[in-house]
Amino acid sequence: MSEVSIRIHDGAGPTVIYLPGIHGDWGLIGAFRRALGARVRFVEFEYSKDEVALERLAELVHAELSAYGVESGWLLGQSFGSQVAWTLIARGFKANGVVLAGGFVRHPWPWGARLFQTLLSGVPSGVVNPAYQAYTVACNTLARRSPEEAGELLAFARNRGRREWAAMSWRLSLIAKSDPRPTARATHAPVHYLGGMIDPLVPWPLVTRWLRRECPGYKGEVIIASADHNVLGSSPRESAERVLAWITAPS
Q1: pLDDT for 77-96, tens place per residue?
Q2: The whole model's pTM is what?
Q3: d(C-alpha 251, C-alpha 242), whole Å
Q4: What is the Cβ-side half-sphere exposure of residue 63, based on CA atoms within 13 angstroms?
Q5: Which residues, in sequence order, are CB contacts of 225 under 8 Å at separation 6+?
Q6: Are 176 and 114 contacting, i.e. CB atoms less than 8 angstroms apart?
Q7: Is the pLDDT of residue 1 over 60?
Q8: 151-170 as b/e: b if 16+ CB within 10 A
Q9: What is the pLDDT of residues 150-180, one digit of tens each?
Q10: How many Cβ atoms from other residues are within 10 Å of residue 113's Cβ?
Q11: DSSP code per residue over the chain
């Protein structure tokens, strides 16, 4: 059965709807969410692990939002989540604004997504979980995370398996085919770009150049020097303050 899961953390401020990247769940967003605290109502999703078309995935997300009475809000699209965000807007969801966190419109290098998909598909099953855990330990060491953050990321790694790996591969194929440029060209709600300087997966200078030229709602970008592609996770406190400033700015 194709389905998505939703969690809502109540707060006094604007609604922020977090749409995760190719990992597909809320396992990497805890530190960012805590940095925002009760200043926002934070809505987060876990995607289906089935091979669901992008339009169908956005339909499922939209249905969950409607079921919980979330009729509008700021869309926070992390990497692949940006494609879900644009598709939601195309479906008629009332976005008060969009934050692209390592996100994009049409990926500047769709061939790169296809290449990455090929590489993921060739990884033996027995390597998947150890690879996740080794990567997580390295990230924790380099970032000097708090024990709470480190524990969350290690739990995230332990819960990864072949099915999650296959779902990531599928989402890469969706990235390679997705082209929401017509939607972005028609978007007048404020759009912001938040990125990490160290990003080998999304060439943010090409993304932001296109947005400045083509997207009428684009307000500019902030690139955090110490962050990587997972900017919300690698620099959660600075990212939270940037996002909060954007979503509370006078219209």
Answers
A1: 999 999 999 999 999 999 99
A2: 0.91
A3: 16
A4: 11
A5: 197
A6: yes
A7: no
A8: ebbeebbeebeeebbbbbbb
A9: 677 766 766 667 788 889 999 999 999 999 9
A10: 22
A11: ----EEEEE--SS-EEEEE--TT-SSTT-HHHHHHHGGGSEEEEEE--SS---HHHHHHHHHHHHHHTT--EEEEEEETTHHHHHHHHHHTT-EEEEEEEES--SS-S-HHHHHHHHHHHHTS-HHHHHHHHHHHHHHHHHHHT--HHHHHHHHHHHHT--HHHHHHHHHHHHHHHH---HHHHHT--S-EEEEEEEE-SSS-HHHHHHHHHHH-TTEEEEEEEEEEESSHHHHSHHHHHHHHHHHHTS--
Strands 72-78, 94-101: pairing kind: parallel
Place of tokens 């006094």: 12
- Tell the residue number behind the tokens 């110490």, with chain if given: 226
Q: Which residue carries 């008060």 as its tokens?
A: 96
CA-to-CA distance for 159 and 153, rounded, in angstroms?
Answer: 10
Q: How many CA atoms lie within 13 A of 229 on its CB side?
A: 14
Dihedral, CA of residue 190, residue 175, residue 79 and residue 82, to nearest 10: 30
Q: How far is CA 126 from CA 53, 116, 161, 171, 190, in A?
A: 28, 19, 9, 21, 44
Under a CB-based contact definition with an 8 Å cutoff, are residues 128 and 162 in contact? yes
- List, for residues 135-144, the tens digit of each pLDDT value: 666 655 555 5
CA distance 200 to 171: 18
Residue type, 92: G
